[in-house]
Specification:
With 147 residues, this protein is mainly α. The protein contains eight helices and no strands. Among the domains are: 53 residues, no CATH class; 44 residues.
Length: 147
Amino acid sequence: MDNMDTNSLPAIPPSRQKNIPLETLIELRNKNLSYEQIGKVVGCSKINAMMRIKNSGIETLDTFKRHEGDILSVKGKMLLSNLTDAKVKKASLSQIGVVYGIVKEKELLVRGQATQIIRYDAQALRERYDELKRMLDETIDVTPEDV
């Protein structure tokens, strides 16, 4: 962290502030303030600031985002591999299907892969093309010689 002068920051007396918004702590951390500096600014201890930020998981979020597709694949595999006959009997088929479907769709989305199949009817496209061509052919051709 840089050696920012905490005297220039608006300090809240260390009266053990309650309900400090996590967003505030994260914003200050993203400005490269140390945990001690953050504590002085928001009025809490260095340990409190550090624990709140670390427990939020924000410091590992970038790594998670880079590997989210793989993580979701692993979780999907884990769901399926832990699916026992006893668990299937307890859960409804729709519950099992929905959970797997959500995980799989999220994985595909993160990987940038299509989540739906786009179908086209070649015959219908050909008929529409022929119709438009016929309409174009029937239009009056106005060339400079006709004017």
